[in-house]
Design a protein that fits this description.
It is built from five helices and three strands, in the order ααβααββα. By secondary structure, it is an alpha+beta fold. The protein starts with a helix and ends with a helix.
Length: 108
């Protein structure tokens, strides 16, 4: 359980940055070279490479060499674990909203 929490912490830290979230959004459409990814941003290619390193460490991105390029692709598995964790909170909010609705309707 502790190892899973550490893994989730790494994923949350990776997702905390808007540039990294945008990189993941781009990769949802399919694999992309580092150069093509960098072309989507106003930051330097080395800066994008640093963001990709964080995403790889969180196992959110896999990359493979292709000639002189590296092709990056989204790995959804860590996001599935986060979604499962968040699911408990979705149920909490659903129950809370049902109780709020009942309370408001009783106030009429």
């Amino acid at each position: 359980m502790r190892n899973q929490m550490v893994t989730s912490d790494i994923v949350f830290k990776a997702l905390a940055d808007p540039t990294r979230r945008e990189i993941l959004s781009i990769l949802r459409n399919g694999s992309c070279s580092v150069g093509d990814l960098a072309a989507n941003f106003h930051t330097s290619r080395p800066a994008i490479s640093k963001h990709l390193r964080v995403l790889r460490e969180a196992k959110l991105v896999k990359d493979t060499p292709l000639g002189t390029s590296r092709m990056c692709e989204l790995n959804p598995e860590p996001l599935k674990r986060i979604d499962a964790w968040l699911n408990d909170y979705k149920h909490f909010w659903d129950r809370s909203l049902v109780r709020l609705k009942a309370h408001v309707e009783n106030q009429r």
